[in-house]
Amino acid sequence: MRVLLIEDDIMIGAAVEQGLKDAGYAVDWVRDGEAAINAVQGEAYEIVLLDLGLPKADGREVLRYLRGLGRRLPVIIVTARDSVDDRIDGLDLGADDYLVKPFEIRELLARMRAVLRREGSGSAPLLSNGKLSLDPATHQACFLDKSAPLSAREFALLQALLARPGTILSRSELERQVYGWNEEVESNAIEFLIHAVRRKLGSDAIRNVRGVGWMVERAS
Questions:
Q1: 179 Rama sector, left if φ>0, alpha if ψ -120 to 50, beta otherwise
Q2: Distance between CA 1 and CA 24 in Å, rounded?
């Protein structure tokens, strides 16, 4: 699942970026409002984390732009502005949630899961197709009689597949869900992750469609 992080504070941005990666999200981090608008024009994101006090274009301008696109894109404002008026203003402009700094990364992740559940974006309390299940909160996966914890990238890959059971995802589609802009991707990285998941859960957990991509079975 791909996240756009819009944060100009280097220390906060780096900490949030690492926390998101550790949780299995692919993260693109930009540091000003103009870069944020450019990023959204070139990439499809599942959720946006938006600071308000940004250079070049204020966070409110960015939010107005996002809401003018005519498509649903969940936005959580993450800011030090903590007055009631600021919160009301941000929510009235179209933010889905409002989190005040400082915060624990666990709370941010929980709020993201809650917002994505409301959007139907594959972050239900438990993702399942009837045989294979995945818990977004714990990264625990189960397939038939096998159960195992997944690494962050293994989780991101399996989450992408379980969000669209019965749909074949190509290597490039899976790379987009697992890796951010600045991360090097080896040519066999997706195959390596699939092999790791199959080793933990069984070879039938993920199906290969030769020459096309990979899938999990449609919900039964």
A1: beta
A2: 8
Residues 6+ positions from 159 with CB-CB distance below 8 Å: 1, 24, 122, 127, 134, 136, 177
pTM: 0.82
Say yes or no to pLDDT of 120 above 70.
no
Q: What is the pLDDT of residues 34-49, one digit of tens each?
A: 999 999 998 889 999 9
What token pair was written down for 45? 């994101």
pLDDT at 122 over 70: no
The residues facing 215 across adjacent strands are 207
Query: 3-state DSSP call for residue 193?
Result: helix
The conformational region for residue 113 under phi > 0 = left, psi -120 to 50 = alpha, else beta, is alpha
119-131 burial, b if ≥16 CB within 10 A, otherwise e? eebbbbeebebee
Residues near 103 by beta carbon (within 8 Å), at least 6 away in sequence: 78
At 82-91, the pLDDT tens digits run: 899 989 998 9
Tokens of 65: 């732009």
